[in-house]
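can u pls check wat happens w/ adenosine-5'-triphosphate
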Amino acid sequence: MTAICIANNKGGVGKTTTAVNLAAGLARLNYKVLVVDMDGQANATYALTGRVHPAPSVYDVLVGTRKIDSVIWQTNEENVWLIPGDGRLQNADVELASKPAREWRLARALTGQEFHYIIIDTPPSLGVLTQNALAASTKVLVPISLTEFSLIGIDKLDAVIEDLREQLDLPDLEIAGVIATFFEDTTTSRETWGILEKKYEERLLSTRIPKNLDLEKAHREHESVLSFAPSSTSGLAYMELAREVKRRVAAHSRPYNRRSAQAY
Ligand SMILES: Nc1ncnc2c1ncn2[C@@H]1O[C@H](COP(=O)(O)OP(=O)(O)OP(=O)(O)O)[C@@H](O)[C@H]1O
Ligand SMILES: [Mg+2]
């Protein structure tokens, strides 16, 4: 089991789209994949099932009123399972504030799960939900949109990962890759790609996700783009991304066990 957090505190950069379609791509490479929706917008939940703000959800697991096995659902994608999110997650910062080991609640709940990959979608903020997602993961993938102004604020995420690594003793937590999204054949797109190459070097994945409307259409049909339009530009790119991620972040068949989660 390998847990990957998809994070960027900036909104609308393609986190959810990447979580859903990367999961579908890894499933097509014969891996069992669990998606965890840690965002109160619950977009990944809608994209994979068509359901809007279902309960119970990961919220009930985080506050301790549900066991995780009762909130794992099948999705419209073969080999992809989902722990849904719902709107109550928006109160999580306040509700978890006084709970002990509040950053470890997801990691602890996932212990023993048997999937090859867990892909965790996060909200566009760096609060307790994103901290839970990071603490539960060893690898972070950061989608960055190749549009103007998309790089403003990106260093904040680096700083949060650095802080968590120290505070929670997570020496192995690292950015495994930066994924360029919304790629277009324009000067801005190419210039931003050039800046990312310089800044992230080998951490910049070579697969670029093009700007493509089929992603939005697939979302509305509650399917991955790999089911909805496999030979579209974005369908091909997400399949390629899954292959690249598989090479960089190996799957493990051992049951999930985040070392530090055991301490609580
Ligand atoms: N490569 C792309 N080309 C065109 N549209 C895209 C692309 N990626 C995502 N979108 C669309 O852009 C919008 C934002 O994408 P998405 O929801 O994945 O971003 P996000 O980072 O998860 O946003 P948030 O921060 O609000 O959670 C969605 O409507 C999605 O369908
Ligand atoms: Mg999202």
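The domain at 2-258 is CATH 3.40.50.300 (Rossmann fold).
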